[in-house]
Amino acid sequence: MDTHSAALEMRSANIAFIRNSADTIGREAAQFLLGQGHARSYAFLHSDPVTDWSRARFAAFRRELNDSGLWCEELFAPDAATKLKHPAAVLAANDDRAFDLVKVLAARHIAVPREVTVLGVDNDTLICENANPRLSSVQPDFEEEGRLAAETLDSMMRGKATEKRILLVGVKGIVQRASTAKQSHAGRLVQKAVAYIDAHALEGIGVRDVVRHLKCSRRLADLRFRELQGCTILDAITERRLDEVKRRLATTREKMDLIAAACGYANPTYLKNLFKKRYSMTMRDFRNLYQKT
The whole model's pTM is what? Predict the structure, then answer.
């Protein structure tokens, strides 16, 4: 049985806990979402209240994303997902929480999965099939849990004393519905590019550097990136740099030339012209707007 009763946990013999593997759930969910290739940010939405198994699923999910060079936000309320950078991908601790999330996104007119991809856990069909849109979900291997439970109980009833055991069961797969996009063979390639851009855009990299990192042709990289991200590789590099420029303008008093250099622009004049063209105001005007006292 999958329970966390304090009284039962204290028993040292003749008891077994059969539980979903949080590591497997987190890893499989991350791989699935990475395979879609369109997210620019990732997050995990905890159960309410937050539980040990929710924390464990989050840790595994974040670890798998970190291994791919990507960051994972930790959310404690569905409303927090509305502030994610779009397109975003969110793993909810379970289907109940995923259902809450799609309701909040709908109320805020945030499109699922175009702007936010949502994945639940448990594949509770009553919940998943009645959500709008219908929820994709990680399917734990409940049949294997039942088999292990019966086998363990039979052994105990035959008088075979055993020490307390915790048996972990994996997942059968992921049931895909309308809350997630279709899988793409190039999804991991594009996410590798996104991670590289996020880590190195401020160092003055160009499209060639990204293509070299991907170890594929520029034509293929450009095609797949535009297909899944909706923009070019150069657009993504520029967006990452300008986001940092705006952050520095709004929160520091650094000189414009220093900001340009720190954000990967060797020519401050080029940045100033680009900024004005993009935002219809000068960098100085932007700073004054956000640093009013």
Answer: 0.81
